[in-house]
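hey m, so remember when u said the C-alpha cells were messed up on ur end? i reran from scratch. heres the input so u can diff it against urs
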Amino acid sequence: MPDHVTVAETDDWVTITLDRAAKANALTGETFVAIGDAVADLDPAVTDGVTLRGAGEHFSAGVDMSGVPEWGEMDPLDVRDQLEPIHDALRAIEGADLPVVAALEGYVLGGALELALACDLRIASASAEFGLPEAEMGLAMDLGGPQKLPGFVGEGLTKYLVMTGETIGAERAFRAGLVEEVHDAGDFDAAVADLEATLAATPTYVLGLGKRQVHAARDGTVEDGMQQAIHHAIACYREEETQRRVGEFLDG
C-alpha cells in the first residue's frame, strides 16, 4: 500500500483515505490500483462496506499531472498499459459485492470525479466542487467521466462540464442527481457515519445482489466508450498544444 493511501477498519466498516493533503490528494496510477486492490481484497462475509474519502479539506483535485509530459513521449501501447490497470481498479470498485461510499469534500475534480462515479453512493459536504477541467489543458478524459455522467446528470450537463471546465457546487450536483446526499460542513462527518450505519444494518449480500441487478440493466456501451477513451487520451498526450498547456500548469 503506498504511503498516500491509508486503510482503517472500525466495527466491520472500512475507510480508505487519500492521504496526500499537501497536494490536494492528487491521484497517481499507483493510487488507483491501491484503492482497487484494497476494495477487491475485502470479504463481504466479514466487512459491511467501505467509504472512500480524502484527508484535509479536499477529496481530490484530480490526477497528478506531472506524468503527462513523459506520456507524450511514450509509445501509445505503453500508455495503454499504464491506463488499463486504472480501469481495472475502477471495475473492482464498481463490482465489489458490498457498498462503496464516496465521502466528498472540497475539490472533486477530473479523475477524482471519475473515481467517485465508480462508487455506489456519493455523499457531499456543502463545500464540494465538482468538475472536469481536462479540456482546459487539451486533455481527453480517460477514466469514464463522459461515458458514465450522462446516466447521472443527462447529456446537457455532462457536455457543459466536459466542454467548459467549469465547476458546479454541491447543491447543484444534488439537484442534478450526481450526489445522493448533501450536508453542511459541520454535520458532514455525522451524516457519513449515519449512512454507513444504515447500510451496515442490511445484510451485505443483499446489497451486493442489488448492485448486480442495477448494473445488469446497463446497455454495455459504457465499457466500449472507456476503451475508446484510452485511444483519445493517447492522441491528446502527443499534441504539442496539450504539452504546452500542461507545462504552463506544472510551472504554476
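this time it looks ok to me. The mean pLDDT is 90. if urs says something different then somethings off w ur setup not the seq
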